[in-house]
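input
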Amino acid sequence: MLRCGPCHGGAVSSKPPRRHPASPARSASQQPLTATASLRQLLDSLVREQRSNQELLVSLGFALRSFTNLNRFLELVPVVAARLVGVEGALLVPFQGDGRLWADQIQMLPGVRSASLLQTLSQHEPGRSAGFGSDDALVLALDRLVQGQLGSAGMFATSAVARGRQRGRLYVFEPKGSLVWSDVHRRQVQLVADLTGVAIENDQMLQEARRHERVDRQLSIGAEIQAQLLPDHCPVIEGVELAARCRPAFQVGGDYYDFIPTRPELIGRRRERGRWALVMGDVMGKGVPAGLLMTMLRGMLRAEVLSGLPPDRILHDLNQLALEDLSQSHRFVTLFYSDFDPRTRRLRFANAAHNPPLIWRAQQRTISRLDAPGLLIGLQPEADYGAGSVVLEPGDVLLYYTDGVTEAPGITGDRFDEARLIRSLESACRSGSGSQGILDQLFDRLDRFVGADRQLEDDASMVVLKVREEVMLPSVSRSPA
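output
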């Protein structure tokens, strides 16, 4: 039998050659197994990468929910962003609430250029201006600045946005060259940036809430102090009824009223029959500053009352004392000062540009104003104040008030104004009510005008003094004291 060798051609054996165990037919059957294994390995690798990316995002979400320190969260952002897309570099440039570049919170993976880039960003002059983060041209210039510092590195940048406001810029880059990029990478980086924007927004809202809590605590303390400074009840003065109420527009207001005995050493009936100072004032402005100035003014005035001087001299001296403090605060004070002697029923008064009190004359059944010339407290030195006096008769009613009453806006936009207050006072006086009843009717009328559940724009205060009708004292001289 002839055999066919590797170098021979032509004749072949009549019998088929015997197949070797490692024949070509068996090798062909193994080829699909190798391709399947490779595909399986590729799928396993993709699954592992997907799981790894999911774990990274889950860890970032957990940090967002758990971390109370924003800095700890922001430190994770460049690490997660870089690992998600398989690059070596990532940079986070956050913005503050007013849009300024937040230099203290810039985060970057350590690298060759990291120190110089961080220094450049922290010294970036445009970034120190409010509104920097909302200016597209300035943000684009920031991107160019970062790219210039990175040189030929491939870079991708996106914004961290929350509630429509740009809270920072997130950069991922490959220092060794161009980025191998895909749409999946873009979405993953954008997701990290969105979580970062939420974290910055949450922290700023938390800081704002804490600030409000501190202010609320301070306002509550201020309101308590002011409530203690305003009389918690009206004093007993022989022959008259008193009622008073202050409704501040804020927790702390600038309205001021007071009842001050001119001789505080007297007690009992002698105190009731002694001369009393009745004061109504208003510090221009609202809130804590006005309340603080009102507190200062109260202390000064109470000291002045002890001097026993007439009302015009007391306002003159008070203006001199308060001038420097008020001028520095750029605020002024209106003040109506009066003193009442129960023995003669004479009321002496002076006015520092405050709303003139209204007086209801029971016998004539008419209303008029009590006024005297005078400038605001704190407006100018050596201001002069006029003086006046009136004798109150049984049934007469005196209403002190601040401009928060007459300037209160109604539902239609009109002001309550003095004419409406006069009509309301006349109606209340004709009803025969006592001082507290008159005060309640006036505030009820004001509340109906302003509207239910609407806040006043300014502090509103009223004091009602009514001479008891059963009091019948001997005729007294009506000449000025």
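quick obs: The CA atoms of residues 300 and 321 lie 8 Å apart.
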